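Entry for the shared binder. Reason: the reviewer on the internal report wants the predicted structure included alongside the sequence.
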Amino acid sequence: MNDARLVVVKIGSSTLVDGAGSLDGGFISSLSEQVAALISQGVKVVIVSSGAVAAGREVLSIPERPTDMATLQACASAGQARLTQAYADILATYGIPCAQVLLTRRDVMDRDAFLNARTTLTRLLELGAVPVVNENDTVSTAEFAFGDNDMLGALVSALVGADLYVICSDVEGLYTSNPQEDPTATLIERVEEVDQDLSSRAGGAGTSFGTGGMSSKLRAARAMLAAGIPTVICRGRRENVLLDVVGGKRVGTRFEAPQGSPHEGGRKLWIGLAEVPRGTITLDEGASRAVLERGASILPVGIVSTMGYYSEGDVVNVRTSSGEVIGRGIARYSSEDMQKVHGVKLEVIARFLGHDRAQPAVHRDDLLVF
């Protein structure tokens, strides 16, 4: 990994704040110094930073994380300026400009907007700036929220074509079991595939300062495996952690597909990461194997059930009969029509609905397989 020229680093709220819930200036200074050192070596860096709500709580003198949306968004508004300025002050001492970039999923759902965001981030990097990216919590709504910055960081990594995605957390990485409950738990140093067994090892949400847990980090890492972008989950407060990870040292858990594995292109990554799924289709065992092992499209006959309300052209989750989500794709039937055609062969569909309606439920060209 010491040949990485473009790195995206995501910092979680629990790593950014001190025991009192305030932004930890010492940590931000250390991280910014590491970023400056990387830039001096010719490495471009994008920071995806949580912490606006935590910073806003301090600004507005709110002792605990709010539970109502209005107060959460007020904290994000008050804290975002302080958060970005904290990075900017340190980077400025090294002559490095800092740029604030706020995104919501709505901003990148449109393909043109997705490409425009990529152009902006790429130009900032060309100009020598460090983009500090965060979700625009002030205006984001539940329907269009990323949910946590782990997936936002994955989207940014795909946007800019990163060579490496680093998730700085409050844990060393992924363990065989919960180390707080099992003293025999050991760190998993390398992962080549995120399957259902591995996902079951992840716990729930994190601390009162953040929204993400290990499960959200695994979802992001799984998306990066499809993109061909190596991902490392590590403890952000480890001394010189960013320099060590980019330098190729064995730190945390590294997710990387086997050499020669196929990588998905930008359009499929946009489908899987940027679009909001409107429903879910469940495949039988044969259809699941065809998608995972043979790169097949999803035919109606292989679908055992459909959930949600969606139109033709909307994105849906694709899952196995055991409940594991294995991808996302663009549905070629509405949910109403899918109820009629699932489990039915194409020749039967053609007989009753016409040959122009006898088509895959999700074409492989429109399907991102995790």
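Summary line for the report: The first strand starts at residue 6 and ends at 11.
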